[in-house]
Design a protein that fits this description.
Shape: globular
Number of helices: 14
CATH architecture: Alpha-Beta Barrel
CATH topology: TIM Barrel
Distance between the termini: 48 Å
Mean pLDDT: 96
CATH superfamily: Aldolase class I
Strand order of the largest sheet: 1-2-3-4-5-6-7-8
Helix content: 40-55%
Order of helices and strands: HEHEHHHEHEHEHEHHEHEHHH
Strand content: 5-15%
Low-confidence stretches: none
Length: about 325
């Protein structure tokens, strides 16, 4: 049996791409997108009709240039998401503009707007996860949205305090970024052996998974941002894993046994259940250089790609 098929027997596999053809090829349960993935997809000529449709729709809405650009990018994200829901049986994750990462109200407004646009496409909110950066402000927006029945995917998660706060807020799902954690530690200690169980990203997700299971949280743990298939196999059994097309292809082409590494029946944690206050959260993040730096870098990166996507759409 190939590794992808074996992995699917113990973990829900999610496609980390906006490429509809790749999603169709690997038959994942869910799919996730972000501004970087949407930008990449939008540069493919086969998506040109969707870009034209987004531009035309935005013009019917009127408003300032900035409002029209926001409408274009929102509508394009929903159009691509709607196409993806025709292929996957589960969720499509659609991200809130990263520039709202420190603004709870703006995040809520954008989330409601995305849900409205999906509804206009005939896509129920039950098929959508709103992706929000795991800042304190983003987590508080998720707390409100979850109470409204809008499920959230808290992304750009690097530190344990972020995971604690997300679970306490009742977030449906979190996306800890395995590979980006590894990147940071490799830069700090280039000679260290960070493979297999020594991978700090794998260790982070394992800790979070065990904490959630022993604390009785329902929040789904979905490992993300993988650098190699070894990281994926080391987290076999995690609730969900979101994987890019290249690594999905590598798993599908590899015939090897996959051993379950994470299991709720065997979960054990020394971490006491705790929902951090704002002060505790901010201090924990301040005290974790990796989490602080990677969160800031991730927000900047997604915001930059959001701007590039707007510029692409502005070219009529």
């Amino acid at each position: 049996m190939d590794q992808l098929s074996a992995l699917k027997q113990m973990t829900t596999v999610v496609a980390d791409t906006g490429d509809i053809d790749a999603i169709r090829q690997f038959t994942p349960q869910d799919a996730t997108t972000n501004p970087s993935l949407l930008l990449k997809a939008s540069q493919d000529p086969k998506y040109a009709p969707l870009l034209d449709q987004a531009r035309a729709w935005a013009k019917t809405q009127g408003g300032s240039d900035a409002e029209m650009l926001a409408n274009m990018t929102d509508y394009l994200a929903v159009l691509i998401g709607a196409e993806i829901t025709k292929i996957v049986p589960g969720y499509i994750s659609t991200e809130v503009d990263a520039r709202f990462s420190f603004n709870t109200k703006a995040t809520l407004d954008k989330a409601h707007r995305l849900i409205e646009l999906y509804d206009a496409q005939g896509i129920s909110k039950d098929r959508v996860l709103i992706k929000i950066a795991s800042t304190w402000e983003g987590i508080q927006a998720a707390r409100v949205l979850e109470k409204e029945g809008i499920r959230c995917n808290l992304t750009l998660l690097f530190g344990f305090a972020q995971a604690q706060a997300c679970a306490d807020a009742g977030a449906y799902l979190i996306s800890p970024f395995v590979g980006r954690i590894l990147d940071w530690y490799k830069k700090q200690s280039p000679e260290a052996d960070l493979s297999g169980d020594n991978d700090p990203g794998v260790q982070s997700v394992t800790r979070i998974y065990n904490y959630f299971k022993t604390s009785g949280y329902d929040t789904v743990v979905m490992g993300a941002s993988f650098r190699n298939t070894g990281e994926i196999i080391s987290l076999a059994g995690c609730d969900r894993l979101t994987i890019g097309p290249a690594l999905l292809e590598e798993l599908a082409a590899t015939a090897a046994e996959v051993t379950r590494r994470l299991d709720p029946a065997n979960a054990a944690s020394s971490d006491t259940k705790h929902g951090p206050s704002e002060g505790e959260f901010r201090w924990a993040m301040n005290d974790d250089a990796m989490a602080t730096e990677k969160l800031a870098e991730g927000i900047r990166g997604f915001a930059a790609d959001q701007v590039k996507l707007e510029q692409l759409l502005a070219k009529a």
